[in-house]
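Structure (tokenized):
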């Protein structure tokens, strides 16, 4: 069945066997395990990027893991700053008496870095 499928779509020039094979074999990047420890120690408030809704990447993934470990975030750790990440950041900001705007800027990074170093409780 797989060979019939590949023979049918390859002449179209849309997909090569090398592009489609991982989907059937099970080695697609979507199945890769990403390990994050939830620590933000490597980020400095003065050099960390400003994050807000729509941001993507490993920094967002680290932020999500940190917020999950502290009970603020309950979504997938996917590196996408979406609705759930925004709500978690706002709740963290509110609990730590920061401006509740959902933007992880210098002040929020300062508190995140401090909490990462000294505590792991709900309001740490």
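Design, position by position:
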């Amino acid at each position: 069945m797989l060979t019939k499928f590949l023979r049918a779509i390859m002449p179209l020039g849309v997909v090569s066997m090398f592009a489609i094979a991982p989907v059937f074999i099970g080695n697609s990047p979507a199945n890769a395990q990403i390990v994050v420890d939830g620590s933000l120690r490597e980020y400095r408030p003065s050099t960390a990027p400003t994050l807000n809704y729509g941001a993507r990447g490993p920094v967002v993934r680290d932020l999500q893991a940190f917020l999950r470990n502290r009970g603020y975030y309950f979504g997938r750790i996917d590196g996408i700053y979406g609705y759930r990440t925004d709500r978690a950041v706002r709740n963290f900001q509110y609990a730590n008496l920061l401006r509740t705007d959902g933007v992880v800027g210098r002040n929020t990074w300062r508190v995140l870095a401090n909490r990462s170093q000294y505590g792991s409780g709900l309001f740490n």
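Reviewer-requested clarification: The radius of gyration is 20 Å. DSSP finds five helices and no strands in the chain.
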